[in-house]
Hints:
- By secondary structure, this protein is mostly helical.
- Helices cover 61% and strands 5% of the residues.
- It has helices spanning 2-28, 43-57, 79-91, 95-121, 125-137, 142-150, 167-170, 175-181, 183-205, 208-224, 227-247, 252-258, 260-278, 296-301, 304-315, 325-341, 361-370, 372-378, 384-413, 423-433, 446-455, 471-482, 488-498, 514-521; strands at 34-36, 420-422, 441-443, 459-460, 502-506, 524-528, 532-536.
- It is globular and about 85 Å long.
Amino acid sequence: MLPVLLLAASLGVLLFYVTEIAYAIVAARAHDGYVPLGFVSLAMDIYSYFSFIHQAAQGHWLFRNDMTHQPCDRVFFNLQWLVIGKCMGWFGWSPQLTFTIWRFAGSLTLMLGFAALAVVALPRTWQRVTALVMCAFGGGFGWVIAILGTFRLIDTSKTLGLRNPAIDLITAIHPFGQILKNPHYSLPHGTFLIVIALFITAERTRRARWYVAAAAMAVIQGLMRPYDLITICAAIPLFILIECVLSRKIDLRTNALRALPAVVSAPLVGYYYYIFSIHPVFKFWASQGDQKTTPIHWHTLGFGLAGLLFAWRILCIRKRPMTDPAERLLVVFAAAMFLLFHGNYLSRLLSFSPQIGISLMAPLILVAVGMLPALAERFRIQRPRTRAAFLVAFLAVNSIGSVLYVVWNANIGATIARNYLREPDAEAVAWLASRVKPNDVVLSTENLGSRIAFLLPVRVALGHWALTPDVKELGKKFERFVGGEMPRGKASAFIEEIRPRFIYVINERGAEDAAYFRRVSGATLAFSNTGVAIYELPSAPNATAAPREPNSS
Length: 553
C-alpha cells in the first residue's frame, strides 16, 4: 500500500506543476495595462468562495452572504472554506497565494484519495498503478471531436459549456481538469473517494468500526461539498437493495450498518435545504445550479477508454457475474452519479444535478482497469513484452485529452476579461484596502464587485450572478445611476436601499462627475485616477443594518 500512496503523492505534485503551465500562459498573455489575478477558469465562482474565506480569516466560524447589501445572518458553514480561511489569516497569505496552496492541496488530496480507493478495490499492484495513471492524466474522446471541429464538421465553440461535444476538453469531468481548474472540485473529490474506500473496507471485513468511519467521513464530506450528500443518500440505499436481492435475505444488523453514511447525512441534507430553499438571502444561491441539459452521447464520449471498458463490463455481466462487493459498489455509485447528473432531463427540481458528476470518473476507471486482463485475453495478448507495450499504448491514448485540456483552457482563459484586473482598478483596490472595514458595503458593477470580494474582506452590493439577490435588476439600476439617467428622487432611494460606504465607478469622463453623486447621495469624491472614481459617503449608514461584531474589525 505504501508504494502506491507514495506514487500517488508524487503524481499529485507533478500534476500541480503540469497544470501550472495553463496559469503561466494566461498570465503571460495579459495585455498592457492589465494585471493577471491568477485564474484560468471559473473566476466568478472562485471569487465567491473567497467572500467566505475572508470571513474565516477574520475569525468567524459561521458565514453570511457578503456579496449583497442585504442584512444576512451568519448561518452558513463550510468546513473547507473555514480551514482555508483560518490558514490565510494565521499565516498572512494573500488571496492569490491562498488559492495556489489550496490548488496544490487539492491535487494531493485527490490523488491520495484515489490511491486509497484503488488499494481496496483492485487486487494487483500493476492494476493500481495503471488506475492511478489513468486518473492523473485521463481524458475522453474530445481530442477526436476537436479534430472534427477544426474541419468545421462539429461545433466545438467555447460558449457551449456543458453542451459542448468536446465536453472533456471544456468542463472538469476528469480529475486532471478538476486539479487544473478548481480546488473546490479536486479536494472534496479526494475526500469523497475516501468515504467509498472506507465503505468497501467495511463490506470486506463486516466490522462495525469501518461503517462508522465511513459515516463520519461522509459527514465531513457533506460539510465541504453538499452535492456529494445527494450521491451518498441515493447510492447507498440502492446498494443495500441490490445486496438484499442477490443474497435473498435481509440482514437487519448489516443493512443498518450499511445505511449509516446515508442516515447521518440526512440532517445535513435538511440543513442545506433550509439554506438554499428557505433562507431569505442564501436561497438565491440555488440558481447557480440551474444548468441546461447535457447531451448524454457527448457526455458518454467524454469518458473515453474508461467509459468503453465500463460499458463492456456491464454488457458481459451474465458471463462474468460481479462476485466482488467492491465492484458492485463502484458500479452502483457510478450509475447513481450518472443518472443524477442527467436528472435535469426529468425535473427542474434536479437542475443542480450536473454538479454531482465531479466524482463519476473514479469508479469508471477502477471498473475499467479490472477489465484489462479480460481485454488482453480477448485479443490474445500473452507475451509479457506485448502486454507491456499494449498497456503503454492504452495509457498514451487515454492521456491525449489532458494535453489538449491544458492548451484549450489556457487559450480560452487568456480571452476572459474577468481573469484580469486593469492597472487603475488594482490601484483603486489597494487604496480601498487601507480604508474598508468588513461591514462596509462597496457599490459597483457585478464584475468589479466580484474582484473586490476576492481581494478584500468587505461586502459588495453586486458581486455574483447567483449569490447577489436580484442581481440583474440591481445591475440595471446601478447603470442608470452611474449614467446620471435616474431621477434625483429615485437615485436617493437607490442609495438609501444599498446604503454603501463607497461607490466605485469606471472613471470615463473624469472627476467632474462627482457633482452628480454629491447631489443625489451626499457622496464626495475620495479617490480618482485615469480609470476609476471612488465616492465616499460621509458615514457608514449600513452599520445600522449590519452591526460590526467585535472580531470583525
